[in-house]
Design a protein that fits this description.
alpha/beta, TIM Barrel, 7 helices, binds zinc ion
């Protein structure tokens, strides 16, 4: 698609993805390769309470001269609920757990604060507190959330006049880009963040494929049983050697 990336073009952005730095399956580097393969222009890895995955992905993308723009991000579990912090090149220096403080610190570093799956109680959304804070954007469609929660988020964003994002909340590679946001911006961190603030966005809903869902379930069940825990595996191997 010539001209897709430049001059008022619409960038395809998935800004809520997990990697192996928190509870996702793919390593940050694999997320980059998968996002490229799926034709995304912008991603943010948003591991739980950690910017490390996004920083690693960003270094990797740059080192291989990728056209993929990797924003620095994290999904922070505040006392009020889950929020996404999306930044250009640098993470904020502190990550307070109180939402009002986090918003101040994030804004001080030029980052955006986005309410993640606000009405999904299972996923620890901020719920009715959505109305008590000033958001740069609201996740109005989360591909792993139920339709009612998503619909409530969409209506709230409209009521509040806050831009809406759609994202995959992928924990496995196959789910990356299942939902995404079209952003009217040049391919640069500042321009993408500005465009989101200004509401030059269009959320595009979508669900992961059956295969991606099956892999997500297998992954999360396995993780809860400790099957993927490398330390635990090596302990078992050690025991095996001793016995
Ligand atoms: Zn969450
Ligand atoms: Zn998430």
């Amino acid at each position: 698609m010539p001209g897709r990336r430049r001059g008022g073009a619409r960038l395809k952005a998935d800004l809520h993805i997990h990697s192996s730095v928190s509870d996702g399956k793919p390593a940050p580097e694999e997320v980059v390769l998968e996002a490229e393969a799926r034709g995304l222009d912008v991603i943010a890895i948003t591991d739980h309470d950690s910017f490390e995955g996004s920083l690693r992905a960003r270094r990797f993308a740059r080192a291989r001269g990728s056209e993929l723009l990797v924003l620095v991000g994290a999904e922070v579990r505040t006392e009020q609920g889950d929020v996404l912090v999306l930044c250009g090149a640098n993470a904020p220096e502190r990550v307070p757990r109180r939402l009002d403080e986090l918003i101040d610190v994030a804004h001080g570093s030029g980052c955006l604060v986005v309410a993640a799956h606000p009405f999904d109680v299972r996923r620890y959304g901020v719920g009715g507190r959505l109305y008590d804070y000033r958001w740069d954007a609201i996740e109005v469609f989360n591909a792993m959330s139920d339709p009612l929660s998503n619909e409530r988020a969409r209506q709230a964003a409209q009521q509040l006049g806050v831009p809406g994002l759609a994202s995959s909340d992928a924990h496995v590679a196959d789910a990356i880009g299942s939902a995404y946001t079209l952003v009217d911006a040049e391919l640069s961190e500042d321009d993408v963040l500005d465009a989101i603030r200004a509401g030059r966005v269009k959320p595009v809903a979508g669900r992961p494929s059956i295969v991606a869902l099956a892999k997500t379930v297998a992954w999360s069940v396995g993780r809860r049983l400790g099957l993927h825990d490398r330390r635990r595996l090596s302990k078992i191997e050690e025991l095996g050697e001793l016995m």
